[in-house]
Amino acid sequence: MRVVQIYKPGGPEVLELVELPTPEPGPREVRVRAEVIGVGRADVLVRRGTYKWMPPLPAIPGAEMVGVIDAVGDGVTALCLGQRVLVSARELLQRGGCYAEAICIPEDAGFLLPESIDPVDAASLPNFQFANALLGCNGGQTHTSILVLGSAGAVGAALAQQAASRGIQVVGTASTEDKRIYARANGVSAFVSSDPAEMAAQVMSVTSGRGVDMAFDHLGGDSIVACLHCLAPMGMLVSYNAIQGPPATDVFQVMRDLLGRSLSLRTFSMHTLDEDRTARRALMQQAIDDMVSNRIKAPEPLCFPLDQVRHAHQLLDARNTIGKIVLNP
Questions:
Q1: d(C-alpha 193, C-alpha 173), whole Å
Q2: Number of other CB atoms surrounding residue 281 within 10 Å
Q3: Does residue 86 lie within any of the structural domains?
Q4: Do residues 251 and 228 make contact, with C-beta atoms less than 8 angstroms apart?
Q5: How many domains does the chain divide into?
Q6: pLDDT at 318 over 90
């Protein structure tokens, strides 16, 4: 079978399409024949060799796959041939492995998919799972408004949809008119500048001076400080990435300066749930149920054949895409 492997960290050029023997499922394992392979930021980190949970090299990247079970190992009782499942590397002992025409997984690792969900749409479910986890970072407290930086991105759009479906006002940032159109279709009702010097004043303007209950930041740097100034009393900033690195400003001092608002800052990673299988899988099942009931809708995909994986990563690196990137094996 064909797989994409990396033998050393680097740019898209290190992604190599190679032939490997098709794996055979062991006891209580099933083999999933790929229909759709998702492409995401975690794959870029694996490719660059900077992922904190890096698999050993040579590695097969890929955190999500949708496919049909075409072989079962001894002792399998929960799944059977012909069923469609979502494979998420969050359920596997080793992250990655989905850039392949087939993968063997424990039978209790896959998510059985209803026939009503298109395989391409299902590749976006991990983003909605992540969005559900982010929205729960405040301990389940109710909130009326949120700020989503990069609201046209894969996670940003999922956050906007999930929040809007719950009646929450979504304020977002988006760098181009095309992205604003896309983000608006996903539930963003107001846009503000991503410039840290302008963001807080504009957020206060669109929230009648109150601020937002939660802000979600993937950038880090000066955006951390700007987001704190955007929060309403008892508000929470959730930092789930730090592309621009840590802020140069003393964040604790900023929070002390805003002491009258009693703000909080939380960092978040889905790896927090690595040892909580029940909670992790419930978040995915919620996303599946929401897609079945049409509360959420998968973004329009950008589809490429497996042998164009380098081009797909070039687009990811350029950060100018809208929607989900998928590979067709």
A1: 6
A2: 18
A3: yes
A4: yes
A5: 2
A6: no
